[in-house]
Amino acid sequence: TCQDVPPYTEDCQHGMYPSKARSTGVPPTFKINLDLDPQIRWNEVMKHKGANVKAMIDQVKKLISDVSPQLVDLVNKYLPEIIEKLPAPYDAEILGISKATGIEDGEILLFNIFYEVFTM
Amino acid sequence: CTSIVAQDVGGTLYHARNLDFGLFMGWDTKNHTWLIAEYLHPLVVNLDFTRNGTTVYKTVNFAGYIGVLTGMKPGVFSLTLNERFNVNGGYIGLIEWILGYRKAHWTSFLTRDALEKSNSYEEAVDMLSNTEILAPVYYIVGGSKPGQGAIITRDRQSLTNMYSMAPDKGMWYVLETNYDNWTDPPFFDDRRTPGKKCLSGVGNKKVDFQTIYDVLSTKPVLNQLTTYTALMQVNKGTLETYIRHCPHPCWAW
Q1: For residue range B2-36, what is the model confidence (pLDDT) as tens digits?
Q2: Which of A1, A115, A117 is most worth mutating to test chain B (most B CB atoms within 10 A of its CB)?
Q3: Rounded distance between C-alpha atoms, residue B201 and residue B30, angstroms
Q4: DSSP line for A80-100
Q5: A5, A100, A55, A83: which is closest to B109 by C-alpha?
Q6: Considering only CB atoms, which chain A residues are within 8 Å of B42?
């Protein structure tokens, strides 16, 4: 049954698929050609989504900066050192995404370690 | 997150998930949404990884994120990764890794490695169960043959628990949120009970993309953190993704 106080629960929904009632659409599809050099295989995705990636990372940096502005400096100072220690092809892919978007490589790595870190 | 592997009466497997992310990372007071979840919406992309012009595996990614949280090797297996909250968490693994202990794999690189290298459901399950990783997680794996569905609960160093479906015993689905399946979820974040209630209400005679999408569209399985819903059918190689929006009133997680 429905519950109108937090946490909100409701009756099981029916007939939602493929309605747009609770969806804003379907995402685009891109090919990642594994035969290409890892440094350039993400270029097509970044050509279309680079600005969105930058906006998201800028927002994360703002959140971090609100806690401590020095933390952002640490990201750019120390995270790039980690990239070169990543296994192939992940090291080259992160550098390639950084190059394609103009975003600091440490900041691209920051995005990629979210899931590891947030288990705390 | 909520991941489901379900089998219909004909033995066809379906694997689906809601990806929830962005908790406590900024609240948009104007729109009453999580800031980072909103920024992630336009980053959702379907990816088709090819070699020699042929699809090797398909994933749903956030642009700029090179690991795999949702993916499928057509005809072979599908997988999803859910966060597992633990004091012995990923930040410890990350610190160890930075300090030079690099035997552990990054959790979402391991899933990509599994899609790349594993050629069967069993190989994928073995790889995801027995490889040392940086953070505790749940790996949810579905196969191409009846009965192939499991939740792999992982610590950083070892396998904690394996929970497999058993359709011949009436266990025709597995459902994982972000809590160990042998304990009760906390009262403030119980997506498991409504998810199981709705899925059980559907029954295995009616399970398909439509009905699983309905389950994943029901609040609080669908919540303010949900960025996308992915639906996978391995045998057909079908992967459908929908960017989600949770209209108010909608619980924050």
Answers
A1: 999 999 999 999 999 999 987 767 788 888 888 88
A2: A115
A3: 37
A4: HHHHTTSPTTHHHHHHHHHHH
A5: A83
A6: 49, 52
Q: Is B1 a catalytic residue?
A: yes
Angle between the N-to-C axes of helices B209-216 and B192-202, in degrees from 0 to 180, rounded to the nearest 10: 150
**pLDDT reading at B187 higher than 70:** yes
Quote the crossing angle between the two packed helices A105-112 and A90-101, to the nearest 10°.
Answer: 120
B206 touches chain A (CB under 8 A): no
The residue written with tokens 């937090």 in the block is: A6
* Rg, C-alpha atoms of chain B: 17
A with B: how many residue pairs have Cβ under 8 Å apart? 205
Query: Are the beta carbons of B40 and B21 closer than 8 angstroms?
Result: yes
Tell me the nearest-neighbour CA distance from A57 into chain B, angstroms: 9
Which residues touch B232 (CB under 8 Å, ≥6 apart)? B14, B15, B16, B70, B72, B78, B142, B238, B239, B240
Torsion of CA B190, B195, B197, B200, to 10 degrees: -150
∠ CA B208-B44-A75, rounded to 5°? 135
Q: Which of A17, A41, A85, A109 best tests the B interface by mutation, with the highest count of B CBs <10 A?
A: A17
The pair phi, psi for residue B54, each rounded to 5°, is: -115, 145
Task: Check CB contact of B24 with chain A, cutoff 8 Å.
Answer: no
Is B95 part of the contact surface with chain A (CB cutoff 8 Å)? no
CB contact under 8 A, B214 and A12: yes
Nearest CA in chain B to A48: B63
Q: With 60 as the cut, is the pLDDT of residue B233 above it?
A: yes
**Rounded-to-integer distance, Cα A1 and Cα A108, Å:** 44
